[in-house]
Amino acid sequence: MHPSGMLRFAFLLSLTLVFDPHPSGTITAMAQESYPPRTADQPKQESVRLDSLVEELHKANPELQAARKRYEAALTRPSQESALPDPRITAGWVSNGWPYPGAGLGMEATSNIGIQIAQEIPFPGKRALKGGIAQKEADSEAQAVRATELRLVAQLKERYYELIFNYEAVDLIHRNQELLQQMAKVAEARYSAGKALQQDIIKAGIEVAILENRLIALEQKKLSSNSEINALLNRPPDAGLGRPETVSTLPSLEPFESLRSRALEASPVLRGQRAVIDGQQLNVQSAQKAYYPDFDVMTGYYNQGAMKPMWEFKVQLNIPLYFGKKQRYGLEEAGATLAEAQLTHRNDQQWLLFRLRDRYVAAEAALKLMNLYSQQVMPQSELALQSSLASYEGGSVDFLTVLSNFNTIRDYRMNYFEQRAEYLKALSGLEELTDTPGGPAPNQGLPQNEVRR
Asked: Cys bridge to 163: 191, 225, 346, 411, which one at CB 3.0-4.6 A?
């Protein structure tokens, strides 16, 4: 084949291999004849599904397990706080003449051997308030568990989508390397025939080296994402993970107002803070109850030997005499703590809405860029490449122009993959903020180029 014809075939084949998800039968046969499959020297990796990783995270992540244990511990406190204080038992004797028990017993009216039982009884309502405060703390811990779970799942999904992008980018560069090597051979043949400059050969070689450099960087990022996923799953950092399954259909982007309403209602961060506010309101009531006295009930039995036994019954109560220095400041402290909780809730709400808007804008921008790349930029770039190929064969443009157009398409394709990953990562953030389970369904097939909003 003539060198220029070989060049045109190589470029047309590159367009088919790089940009057409389902090549036609004729082109596929030509590609298999020109470029043997890479599976011979690169064995196919086992695939891994996102839902299986999420399930493993729920079972194995130590941070999530620690949060659950904190919640379990918090559940034990309401009963403790609402229980009565432990009763007190006192045993002893009063002797006359000698210090040993029973000295003077039956002969002296003051000699006796006895036992006392006492029980402190808080003012009615105090124990219920303490139990209610502890229950609200447990409710807050339950929401903290949910918030931790959502955050870790979102983190796992982000690393998973980054890993998909890294694998797709590596595959794209591998294909481009093969094509550039073929281009270098074509340029060398044209140079030998006196129809090309030596710089064409040099430039082709430089581009191959540049791709190798990008490949090393992508492999490093792939290993980094793999290690972070292993850390989330409580695995060794160098454990094998497998190739993530590509997302087949991208989910749509809901209207912002719908997400906003759901976030304000369902966010575990806000729910947890509302439980804290409820607990602090009970704490204010408890501080008000501190103005009321607690009771101490005591009964006793005293053996006096030959004399009749003596019985005793007492009721004691503490008088909050120094309420101006103690209870008053306790109530002020409780009120300030309640105000702090309310302001913290307001602050958390504002930051939640900011993060929600930030993720939404990121998803919206990524969506627009994906549609722009797939519907306008890449098709036009392909036309520009085909035009430069024809002009190069006619001698009106140089090899560098053709190479530049080829690199432009490759970069746009890479950008498309990157924006798709950014879109999925932004959706993961929205799921975390709105407590929305689920996500896009994984599939080994190639993704669709367009996403409907």
From this structure: 225
Residues 6 or more apart whose Cβ sits within 8 Å of residue 187: 196, 200, 201, 204, 399
Q: How many CA atoms lie within 13 A of 231 on its CB side?
A: 9
CA distances to 11, 109, 117 from 6, in Å: 9, 126, 105
Top-level class of domain 3-77+126-285+326-434? mainly alpha
**Which of 45-54, 74-83, 309-318, 416-425 is the least confident region?**
45-54
Give the span between the Cα atoms of 261 and 267, in whole angstroms: 10
The reported pTM is 0.81
The C-alpha atoms of residue 286 and residue 124 are separated, in whole angstroms, by: 11
Q: Would you list the domain boundaries of the chain?
A: 3-77+126-285+326-434, 85-123+290-317
Nearest C-alpha neighbor of 301 from the set 293, 291, 311: 311
Residue located via tokens 């060049």: 7
Residues forming a β-bridge with 243: 47
Q: How many residues does the chain have?
A: 453
Average pLDDT for 165-184: 84
- Look at residue 451 in the predicted model and tell me its pLDDT: 37
User: 394-411: per-residue pLDDT in tens?
Assistant: 666 777 777 787 788 888
**Least confident interval from 90-99, 100-109, 282-291, 307-316:** 100-109
Nearest CA to 414 out of 172, 127, 60 is that of 172
> CA 339, 342, 348, 350: dihedral to nearest 10 degrees?
-100
- Cα(348)–Cα(370) distance, integer angstroms: 32
Query: Is the Cβ–Cβ distance between 435 and 150 less than 8 Å?
Result: yes
Question: Considering Cα of 130, then 132, then 135, then 139, what sign does the dihedral take?
Answer: negative
In degrees, rounded to 5, the angle at the alpha carbon of residue 442 between the alpha carbons of residues 438 and 445 is 155
Distance, CA of 91 to CA of 93 (rounded, Å): 7
CA 258, CA 261: separation in Å to the nearest integer?
5
Say if residues 159 and 222 touch (Cβ distance below 8 Å): no
